[in-house]
Structure formats: structure tokens, C-alpha cells
Design brief:
Layout (H helix, E strand, L loop, with lengths): L6 H15 L21 E9 L6 E10 L5 E10 L9 H19 L7 E5 L11 H9 L3 E5 L12 H8 L7 E5 L5 E6 L9 E7 L3 H10 L7 H17 L6
Parallel strand pairs: 1-4, 4-5
Antiparallel strand pairs: 1-2, 2-3, 5-8, 6-7, 7-8
Cofactor: Mg(2+)
Pfam families: Endonuclease_5
GO molecular function: DNA binding; metal ion binding; RNA endonuclease activity producing 5'-phosphomonoesters, hydrolytic mechanism; single-stranded RNA binding
Length: 252
């Protein structure tokens, strides 16, 4: 796992990202997305992977489905998985997506009535080195609308964590306020969102698939009780709890 990846593998992954990038839909596609109150949206999903400290191979892949707008957990799936692909910056999806897709397929097979109408991903979508992050990858392969929500700023395409960025964050007065993350090309790749009145630290929202950016930002804000949207927060909490219960000797 620690050996540097081969150039062939990186080229193969870049080629696959470029191919799949052409399939991303960056606009609203569902009727509920076009409603100011998201009328018709009843189930929102969240996915995450949690690792045992010091172990980069074994992880808990987590899927949760919450009711909307109540944000109560309707379904959860915790599964220990062994990652086979190496970690390479910009290619996280090749490590994680297969296991998240498996979780969605299990749900579709066992309780199809609980399939989420949109999935929140702990990571980036179009706000990515090649405009194809984990949320895009999962969205295209699952066919579901996906939103990428990252806790840390990916410094990419001319977007930097500099003085200007910090002053833009300081100008976010209330929950729901946002500003665009604009690439050197002029394209808006995502938005920094003050997701909660309780937290002045923003999250970084970008389109994954089958949803427009403004809709993704509004939806993210509507799913936040705290800084991180509830579907991702619940996926993170439950995967960590699973590791605590099943691997009590290991620190997570």
C-alpha cells in the first residue's frame, strides 16, 4: 500500500476520470430540486469511510439514509472493508467508491423503498484537480444525485487559502451565506457555505451529479443542524462507533 503508484496506473485512472467526467450532469434533474421547499424530497443519504488509527487498509464503509426534512435515521449499513487501491491525491474515488456503491446496491436489493433521492458525500465533486472528485464518481456510477461537502479547502485551480479567502469567510454573516470558489479559468467550481449559525467555519460544497450548484448549497444548508450536514455527520458518527464497538483496543 505504501509503494508509489505506477505511472501506468495513474494514466489509467486519469483516462477513466476524463471519460466519466463527460457523463456528469451539472443541472437540477428532479422535480423536488426545483421546489423552494424541496417538496417531494423524503430521503437523503450520507456516506463515509472511517479508519482504525494506523491502519490504511481496513475501514468501515458507512451508508445512512435520513428522513427529510426531519433528518431522522431511517436506515444504516456499516461494513468492514479492505481497501485494495493505493491512496493518491486526486484519485480517492478509486479507493472508496466500490464499497460505497456496494452499500447502495445492498440497500436497493433489501429495502428499495428506502433508497435515497440524493446522497451527500464527505469530499469534493467538481471542485477537484480534474473536476471529478469522489461525489462525481459515486454519482455517475450510481445514477443518483450527489453533493460533495468537504470540511477542508482543496487548493486547486487558482483557489487558495490566502488572505482574500479568509476575508471572504469573515464576511459570511449568517447560516446560509456563501461565496463562489472561482477557478483561474473563471468557472465557479463550488461554494464556501456558512452552514450553521453556530459555526463560523465554512464547508465547501460542489456538484457531484444531477444537481445544480445553487440547489446543492441550499439543500446542504437545510440539512445542517451543526457545521457538517446531518447525513454526513451521522455516517461519520456511526462508522466511528462501529469501530469503537468492534475494535475496542484500537484508537480511531
Amino acid at each position: 500500500m505504501s509503494a508509489p503508484p505506477s505511472e501506468d496506473l495513474v494514466q489509467q485512472w486519469e483516462s477513466e476520470q476524463a471519460r466519466l467526467r463527460g457523463l456528469v450532469v451539472e443541472q437540477d434533474t428532479e422535480q423536488w430540486q426545483k421546489n423552494p421547499d424541496f417538496l417531494g424530497l423524503e430521503r437523503v443519504g450520507g456516506v463515509d469511510l472511517s479508519f482504525i488509527k494506523g491502519d490504511e487498509v481496513n475501514a468501515c464503509a458507512q451508508l445512512v439514509v435520513l428522513s427529510y426534512p426531519q433528518l431522522e435515521v431511517l436506515y444504516e449499513d456499516s461494513q468492514m472493508v479492505a481497501l485494495t487501491a493505493p491512496y493518491i491525491a486526486g484519485f480517492l474515488a478509486f479507493r472508496e467508491t466500490p464499497f460505497l456503491l456496494e452499500a447502495l446496491k445492498r440497500l436497493e436489493k433489501n429495502k428499495p423503498e428506502l433508497m435515497p433521492q440524493v446522497v451527500f458525500v464527505d469530499g469534493n465533486g467538481l471542485f477537484h484537480y480534474r473536476e471529478f472528485g469522489l461525489a462525481c464518481h459515486l454519482g455517475v456510477l450510481s445514477g443518483l444525485p450527489c453533493v460533495g461537502v468537504a470540511k477542508n479547502l482543496l487548493q486547486v485551480e487558482g483557489v487558495y487559502k490566502n488572505e482574500e479567502h479568509q476575508s471572504q469567510i469573515a464576511a459570511l454573516q449568517k447560516g446560509g451565506d456563501s461565496f463562489p470558489l472561482t477557478a483561474s479559468s473563471g468557472k465557479v467550481l463550488g461554494k464556501a457555505l456558512r452552514s450553521s449559525q453556530k459555526s463560523s467555519k465554512p464547508v465547501y460544497v460542489s456538484v457531484g451529479h444531477k444537481i445544480g450548484l445553487d440547489t446543492a448549497v441550499r439543500l446542504t444548508h437545510s440539512c445542517c443542524r451543526y457545521r457538517v450536514p446531518e447525513p454526513i455527520r451521522q455516517a461519520d458518527c456511526r462508522s466511528r462507533e462501529y469501530l469503537r464497538v468492534h475494535f475496542p483496543a484500537a484508537e480511531t
